[in-house]
């Protein structure tokens, strides 16, 4: 059977034209499981803050496929030729690496107690259209693809193209997320990075001449995390999603009468072993549609959270310095809120985040290594003074989120605001 097709193209704002010439890739793109990714936003609730961040995991997955394809072509020019089997394995893993993401992925995962990577594996290995296509191509191929995505495949070169400190996934999402948010931090020099990519001892390295582009890439990734991915208001919105889903789960466990069909949510939230086809029915549109129903559910908490979800009713955020004293104050604040009638299971949360620009200081498998002019290979922080200064030095942030407009109406509001001001070390404008 002919495994090539007349070239298909996707017009993409990041990469220009994304080209498909392999029959298997085209059939996988057409599969219902992959088409579902059109209905899953790449950045979850970040569009609440950056209004144009509406791009999908579908377009990102195509971008990762495209960069992987370019990497293979570049390595071929450098003498590292992948076999037809290895080439297709790399392209399929790149295309399918995000198949298991759910709606508003991380909030959804926390409530269900699942990991999207596990569901990616299940979509590839269970009786789905994707599995059938992979197995029709070659028996056992689905398992190999899942190994690459899980980083357990013995071919470490292929794994590194999909998952490493500089991989096709990161290169695409930085450029794509920067473009669609309008934030300039992720504008990296993709061409320079790819052009300096080489193979040394069966691993990816980069020519020394590409060091400055890689420095820029690392700082871009760091800035995108703090300015976009970990934006306080985005975290606040994600908490609202999480609280709404938790309340749904709570009410289902109590046999609350929703007055409309909740079979899908019941099968997801109250079943120990979630059926893969049930899971694949969930997307962003389902959550948004049901949120409209939840406004009139008859439950005060769920109704309020659904309205916040639909109308950007974000919580107020307060940064604080973690310590034994602030920890005790936070517990006192939580107790005071409970005593005053606020349900802290759904209206109170703290977040701790720590992010390093670059974490590795040895030329290990995960690190970024440079091919020096004399053919010596050295880890980047051993060469770059800029990277040396920030390696393994994480930035940390601790934030407390509360609905101030609700707290103002509580009988104990003055005591609550007094404790809050002690925690954050400043006056709180009420």
Brief overview:
With 430 residues, this protein is of the alpha+beta class. It is built from 22 helices and nine strands.
Structure description:
This protein has a domain at 4-221: Hypothetical protein af1432 (Orthogonal Bundle). Helix content is 53%, strand content 12%. It contains 22 helices and 9 strands. The strands form 3 sheets. It has a 4-stranded mixed sheet. The mean pLDDT is 93.
Q: What are the key terms here?
A:
single chain, 430 residues, alpha+beta, 22 helices, 9 strands
Write down the CATH topology of the domain at 4-221.
Hypothetical protein af1432
What oligomeric state do the depicted chains represent? Answer: single chain
Q: Kindly provide the name of the CATH class of the domain at 4-221.
A: Mainly Alpha
The CATH superfamily label of the domain at 4-221 reads: Hypothetical protein af1432
**What is the number of beta strands?**
9
Give the uncertain stretches in residue-range form. none
Count every helix, treating DSSP H or I runs of 4 or more residues as helices.
22
Residues in helices, as a percent range: 40-55%
Shape: globular
Compile the SSE list and pairings.
Blueprint: E1 4-12, E2 16-22, H1 23-30, H2 32-35, H3 57-77, H4 84-96, H5 105-112, H6 116-125, H7 129-137, H8 141-150, H9 156-162, H10 168-181, H11 190-195, E3 197-200, E4 203-207, H12 211-229, H13 232-253, H14 263-269, H15 276-279, H16 284-294, H17 300-311, E5 316-319, H18 324-339, H19 344-347, E6 349-355, E7 369-371, E8 377-379, H20 385-390, E9 395-402, H21 404-407, H22 413-424
């Amino acid at each position: 059977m002919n495994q090539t097709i007349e070239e298909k193209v996707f017009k993409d704002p990041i990469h220009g034209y994304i080209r498909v010439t392999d029959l298997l890739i085209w059939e996988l793109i057409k599969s219902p499981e992959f088409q579902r990714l059109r209905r899953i936003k790449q950045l979850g609730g970040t569009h609440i803050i950056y209004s144009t961040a509406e791009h999908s995991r579908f377009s990102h997955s195509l971008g990762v496929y495209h960069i992987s394809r370019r990497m293979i072509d570049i390595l071929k020019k450098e003498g590292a030729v992948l076999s037809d089997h290895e080439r297709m394995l790399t392209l399929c893993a790149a295309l399918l690496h995000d198949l298991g993401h759910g709606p508003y992925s991380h909030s959804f995962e926390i409530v269900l107690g699942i990991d999207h990577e596990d569901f990616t594996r299940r979509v590839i290995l269970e009786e789905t259209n994707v599995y059938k296509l992979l197995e029709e191509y070659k028996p056992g191929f689905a398992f190999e693809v899942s190994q690459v995505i899980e980083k357990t495949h013995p071919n470490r070169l292929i794994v590194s193209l999909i998952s490493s400190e500089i991989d096709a996934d990161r290169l695409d999402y930085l450029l794509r997320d920067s473009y669609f948010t309008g934030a300039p931090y992720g504008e990296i020099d993709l061409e320079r990075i790819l052009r300096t990519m080489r193979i040394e001892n069966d691993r990816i390295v980069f020519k020394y001449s590409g060091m400055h582009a890689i420095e820029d890439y690392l700082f871009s990734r760091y800035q995108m995390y703090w300015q976009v991915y970990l934006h306080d208001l985005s975290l606040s919105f994600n908490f609202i999603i999480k609280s709404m889903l938790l309340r749904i789960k709570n009410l289902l466990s109590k046999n609350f009468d929703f007055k409309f069909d909740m079979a899908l949510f019941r099968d997801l939230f109250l079943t120990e072993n979630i059926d893969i086809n049930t899971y694949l029915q969930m997307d962003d549109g389902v959550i948004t549609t049901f949120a409209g129903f939840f406004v009139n559910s008859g439950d005060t908490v769920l109704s309020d959270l659904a309205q916040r979800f639909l109308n950007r009713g974000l919580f107020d955020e307060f940064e604080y310095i973690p310590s034994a004293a602030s920890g005790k104050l936070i517990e006192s604040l939580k107790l005071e809120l409970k005593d005053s009638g606020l349900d802290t299971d759904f209206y109170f949360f703290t977040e701790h985040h720590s992010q390093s620009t670059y974490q590795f200081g040895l030329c290990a498998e995960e690190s970024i290594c440079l091919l020096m002019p004399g053919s010596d290979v050295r880890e980047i922080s051993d060469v770059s003074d800029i990277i040396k200064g920030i390696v393994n030095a994480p930035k940390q942030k601790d934030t407390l989120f509360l609905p101030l407009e609700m707290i103002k109406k509580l009988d104990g509001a003055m005591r609550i605001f007094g404790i809050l001001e002690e925690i954050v070390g400043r006056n709180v404008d009420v």
